[in-house]
Amino acid sequence: MSGHLTGKQRHRRILWMRAIVFCVLVCLLIVLIVLGVTKVWNDPGEKAASADASEVLSESSEESESSEPIESSESADSSGSSESSKSIESSESYKPSESYESSEPAESSEQPESSEPAESSEQPESSEPAESSKPSESSEEKITWYEDALGRYRYIDPDACDWNLILVNKQNRLAENLDVHTAWYGEEEVDERIYEALRQMLEDGERDSDRRFLVCSGYRTVDLQTYLFERFLGIIKEESPSLTPDEAYLRAASEVAYPGASEHNTGLAVDICAVDFQLLEREFENTSEAKWLKAHCAEYGFILRYPDGREDITGYVYEPWHFRYVGKDAAAEIMERGITLEEYLAERNLP
Ligand SMILES: [Zn+2]
After folding, report:
1. Which residues are CB-neighbours of 203 under 8 A, at least 6 positions away?
2. Over residues 272-281, mean pLDDT
3. Which residues are catalytic?
4. Residues with Cβ within 5 Å of ion ligand 1?
5. Among residues 198, 249, 251, 291, which one has the fewest Cβ atoms lying within 10 Å of its Cβ?
6. Could you give the 3-state DSSP secondary structure of residue 251?
7. How far is the CA of 191 from the centre of ligand 1 (A)?
8. CA gyration radius, the chain
9. By three-state DSSP, how is residue 272 classified?
10. Are 349 and 128 in contact (CB under 8 A)?
C-alpha cells in the first residue's frame, strides 16, 4: 500500500502540487507587483527627488541669482557709499545733496543703473548751468547762496569741472587760493598748463611783424586780490566820504575785481598789452597787437573773455586785453559764435 498511491491519494497530490505551483506563481506575481509598485513608487520618488533637486537647484540658482544682486548691490553699496563719501569729501560742503544723488546709481544694481544715473545726471545738468548763470529755484535746495553788495553769489568747487573750463565771476567765486602750479612768463606767473600755449601764441603773433606783446598781469592769489581790493576800497572811501558802504563797495568792485571773483585767481587768465601801449584802456583795441590777438587767440585755446556789450552776462566791462585759456575746442566755438564763457557752459549744462 505504501508503495502504491491510490487514485484518491494521487488526486490529492496533484491538487497539492497545483496549489504549490499556484502559490509560487502568486508569490512571483506578488513579488513582481511589489517590484513594479516599488518601481512606480520609486519613479515618482525620483521625479520628486529630482524635482526637489531642481527646486533646490532653482532655489540655489535663485539664491545665487538673488545673492548676486545682493552681492553686487552690496559691493555697489560699499563702492557707492565709498564713492559718495569720496564725492562728499571732494565737494565737501558745496553740494552734499548733489554728491549724494550722484552716488545713488552706483549703489543700485542693473535696472536702477540704467534709470537713476540718467536722472541724476540730468538733474545736476539741468540745474547747475542755471545756477551758474541765473540761479534757479531748484538750485536753492542744493547750493548755498550768499549775498553782498555785488548780488547773490556762491562758492565754486574747483574739482567739479574741467580745469580749463572753471567759471569764476561775481556769482561764482573761489573761497580760497587755488593750488596752482605756476610758471613765470616774463615778470608774471601763469598756470604752468597754459604756459606753452601762451608762449606759442605770442611768438607767432610777433613773428614777421612789428607787434610786441607784454604780459602785464597773470596769476594773483585770492589773498593778494583781497589786499588790492581793500586798498582800493579805502582810497574810494577817503575820496568820497559821502558814499554809503555799499556804494563804495560797488565802486571799488567796478575797478578792481572782487577777491575770489577774478579769473586772475585761477592762473588761466592774462592781461596782454603792447610794448607800445601799456595802458589797460579801451583804446588798446585799436592796436595791431589787440587786433591780432582777437583774430587768432582761439587757435591757441584762448578767448577774449569780456567782449564789448556783454557786461550783463560776464559782469565785467569790455576788456580787450584780458584773455582766458579754455582749450582749443571751447575757444574755437566761443570766438566763432561771439558768445561768452557763461553762455558756452550754460548750453552744455556745465557748472
Ligand atoms: Zn585781466
Report:
1. none
2. 95
3. 319
4. 271, 322
5. 291
6. helix
7. 14
8. 43
9. strand
10. yes
> Which string of DSSP letters, residue by residue, matches 13-73?
HHHHHHHHHHHHHHHHHHHHHHHHHHHHHHHHHHHHHHHHHHHHHHHHHHHHHHHHHHHHH
Distance CA 132, CA 171 (A): 7
**Which amino acid is present at 203?**
E
Q: Is CATH 2.40.128.50 what the domain over 145-347 is classified as, yes or no?
A: no
Place of cell 548780488: 151
Dist. CA 5–CA 74, nearest whole Å: 94
- The mean-pLDDT minimum among 28-32, 33-37, 98-102, 180-184 falls in 98-102
Separation of alpha carbons 127 and 131, rounded Å: 6
Average pLDDT of the chain, as a whole number: 73
Cβ–Cβ under 8 Å, residues 134 and 171: no
pLDDT category, 33, cuts 50, 70, 90?
Answer: low
Is 267 in contact with 219 (CB distance < 8 Å)?
Answer: yes
For CA atoms 74, 77, 81, 82, give the dihedral sign: positive
Contact present, 172 and 156 (Cβ < 8 Å): yes
Q: How far is the CA of 217 from the centre of ligand 1 (A)?
A: 7
Q: Where in the chain is the domain with CATH 3.30.1380.10?
A: 145-347
Give me ligand 1 centre to Cα 307, in Å.
Answer: 12
